Amino acid sequence: MSGLAAVAKLAQVSPATASRALHRPEMVARETRERVEQAAEQLGYRPNQLARSLRTRDSRTLALVVTDILNPFSATIAKAVQDTADQSGHNLFLFNSDEEPDKERRALETLRGHLPQGLIVVPTPGARENLELVPDLPVIELDRASGRPGAYTVMVDNRGGAYQAVRHLLDLGHTRIGMIVGRRNISTAQERYEGYCQALDEAGLPYQEALVLPGNHREEDGRQAATQLLSQPAGVRPTALFVGNNEMTVGAVLAARQLQLSLPGDLSVVGFDDSRWARTTTPSITVIAQPTYQLGQLACQRLIQLMSGVAPPEAHTRLPTTLIVRESTGPPPAR
Amino acid sequence: MSGLAAVAKLAQVSPATASRALHRPEMVARETRERVEQAAEQLGYRPNQLARSLRTRDSRTLALVVTDILNPFSATIAKAVQDTADQSGHNLFLFNSDEEPDKERRALETLRGHLPQGLIVVPTPGARENLELVPDLPVIELDRASGRPGAYTVMVDNRGGAYQAVRHLLDLGHTRIGMIVGRRNISTAQERYEGYCQALDEAGLPYQEALVLPGNHREEDGRQAATQLLSQPAGVRPTALFVGNNEMTVGAVLAARQLQLSLPGDLSVVGFDDSRWARTTTPSITVIAQPTYQLGQLACQRLIQLMSGVAPPEAHTRLPTTLIVRESTGPPPAR
DNA sequence: CTGAAAGCGCTAACAT
DNA sequence: ATGTTAGCGCTTTCAG
Fold first, then answer.
1. To the nearest whole angstrom, how far is the Cα of B7 from the nearest Cα of chain A?
2. How far apart are CA A216 and CA A213, in angstroms?
């Protein structure tokens, strides 16, 4: 670990000049600069970012908190944010809240000591409170809204997407359409639920409490909810299911399989969020696809913009979703 | 950002004592300590880790470099390492090399300035050279070996796993067994290849060059290799395929599907590394499962141990693999 | 047990 | 254009 002082000495300049030569080339005579650069090269000098950040109060570090790194959605977000941060010369701390407000809080506490310049967070239900831990930090909320006043968010059109999904099922002739929704205290789940209700409402179908089951976003939750919904006799159970996220869709489809219901003959399924699994399972699953990578990319771009003091053009950015019709949806069974 | 000075003032002690009260409780009178703790609490004090690290030369920061964050294998590793690091109070920088030595090098250069205490890396083929950038850093190589002398590695028994896979196919009666191997300059691929060869050899079957195709670890590579291997007429093409990693297995199975080969009737497939996809696709895929989470966990534990100056008990740790027989393997087609 | 003082490596004022 | 000085926030000698 040779420091700047060593470089300065070798180049026969003061440390200040060495620093300038490396970070503010235009402030230094070309000849001097070259001498410093060469010395740095020769010694394999790497600036100590800690010292630098301490002095400049600028860590060039961003942080991302996702809710479940094992979910391909989160992994894609992580890659997108990482790529984007990298391009602008920022480092990224990655945290995983596992949907637990408490882990999220601990992540933010840790973060605080590292003076990140900005934060992208997929908020848990506790985020509104947790984010008070970092009051002066530029934050972008991704995929969900915590409900904090004045927050900047980057999300998809959940309501519209859900509406599309249910509309598709209605068009096929379904009238008993169930939904496996996420936790209602998460904006994404709530909005998808509203889209579901709206589509039913417009079609003049009554809302049936018994057809809507909550889940906690994991595969197992989807399996349990679907099992309950589908264990009822034909003629009573739903003929179609709209499932609120990718993981629960897997669970729901596996449950249907286990109950020996064939897709789409006995049951149609539409999932929210595309995945390789949905594309390649048999039958392939009709989904509402989200532009996941772009979501992460945009969030990071917005954050960097925000950090530079420019308020984003809009507080809430919505990206559109796309209905991808595959093999898991068809007309309801003849009764 | 109220600093330690503010806390000290409020508690009516010197900054030095405040620091001790918070980090070396035993060196301070109980009464004083309580006063400081209270002051810290009241001001919402968070130590500036940058300053702390600069002074103590201990950043409590680890770094993990994976090769493809979108691969569930990497995501599981990331979660495991994150969890383990968290438990011992370490922060984690996560990087993604995308299998590119150049990205790996950039990650390490960046890292260097942040003075991480240790590094876990899934090495790219350039790692041996790249790791010279951080000569004094404790490093654990995970899943693969870079070939650096004296390196510590945590891996699975690739050779044994591959042997198991091929042995299983041999036991079913297959004699034309193909392999889609990864890049041979990656130890994991090489070892799995050796296991394949060994099994064939022991069974007295000749090695057939034409049955072994390389791939670059991605789904698309698996698809292409399998397409080439399986486009030959029945009676010539292999009746079974051993595929070197999870992503390529997906590609291979999709290729077989596209060629209208039924599994396991026309073709048996064994993949390396289990996944949800393998478990739930139809037919489900026989695999060699790895203890992925434990791999990450163990690597992190070893690293922390290594950082504390204790040399791990062994330079190379191998975890065992397990053959999980599912529906994609059966006897070869009657000729 | 506590305080004063020095300094981690760097950069920003301020001089020259 | 360059050097000198001071200090980011913290911890750690070294005294007392």
1. 16
2. 10
Could you read off the pLDDT tens digit of each residue along chain A, which spans 335 residues? 578 999 999 999 999 999 999 999 899 999 999 999 999 999 989 899 899 999 998 888 999 999 999 999 999 999 999 999 989 989 888 899 999 999 999 899 888 888 899 999 999 999 999 999 998 899 999 999 999 999 999 999 999 999 999 999 999 999 999 999 999 999 999 999 999 999 999 999 999 999 999 999 999 999 999 999 999 999 999 999 999 999 999 999 999 999 999 999 999 999 999 999 999 999 999 999 999 999 999 999 999 999 988 887 889 999 999 999 999 999 999 86
CA distance B133 to B145: 17
Same domain, A119 and A69: yes
- Please list every residue in chain B whose beta carbon sits closer than 8 Å to the beta carbon of residue A113: 46-50, 52
Task: Give yes or no: residues B123 and B56 share one domain.
Answer: yes
Surface of A (30-49) touching B: CB under 8 A: 46-49
In a domain, A333, yes or no: no
- Looking at the complex, does the CB of residue A164 fall below 8 Å from at least one CB of chain B? no
For chain B, say whether A232 makes contact (Cβ under 8 Å): no
| pLDDT at site B115 | 87
Does a structural domain hold residue A335? no
List CB contacts (< 8 A) between B84 and chain A: none
Domain that holds residue A226: 158-290
C-alpha–C-alpha distance, residues B196 and B181, integer Å: 10
Q: How many CB atoms lie within 10 A of CB B331?
A: 14
Residue B1 has pLDDT above 70, yes or no: no
Which chain A residues contact residue B75 at CB under 8 A? 69-70, 72, 75
Closest residue to B50, CB basis, from A50, A72, A219: A50
Nearest to A270 by CA among A183, A162, A186: A162
Strand C nucleotides in reach of protein CB atoms, 7 A cut-off: 1-5, 7-13
Nearest of B241, B232, B287 to residue B267 by alpha carbon = B241
Nearest to A145 by CA among A113, A206, A188: A188
Give the domain-ending residue among B250, B274, B290.
B290
Cβ neighbours around A263 below 10 Å, total: 22
CA B109 to C1' D7 (Å) is 28
Task: Give the number of domains in chain A.
Answer: 3
User: Do B82 and A70 count as a contact with CB atoms less than 8 A apart?
Assistant: no
**CATH number of the domain that A92 lies in?**
3.40.50.2300
> How does pLDDT run across A4-40, given as a tens digit for each residue?
999 999 999 999 999 999 999 899 999 999 999 999 9
For residue B262, tell me if it sits in a domain.
yes
Which of A185-199, B14-28, B168-182 is least confident? B14-28
B203 and B222 both lie in a single domain: yes
Per-residue model confidence (pLDDT) at position B111 = 86
In this complex, the residue with its CA at the shortest distance from the C1' of nucleotide C6 is: B55
Same domain, A149 and A249: no
Q: Got the DSSP string for B233-281?
A: PTTTS-SEEEESSHHHHHHHHHHHHHTTPPTTTT-EEEEES--HHHHHS
Whether B246 is in a domain gets the answer yes
Residues A227 and A283 grouped into a single domain: yes
Provide, in whole angstroms, the distance separating residue B58's CA from nucleotide C3's C1'. 25
| SS3 category, B98 | coil
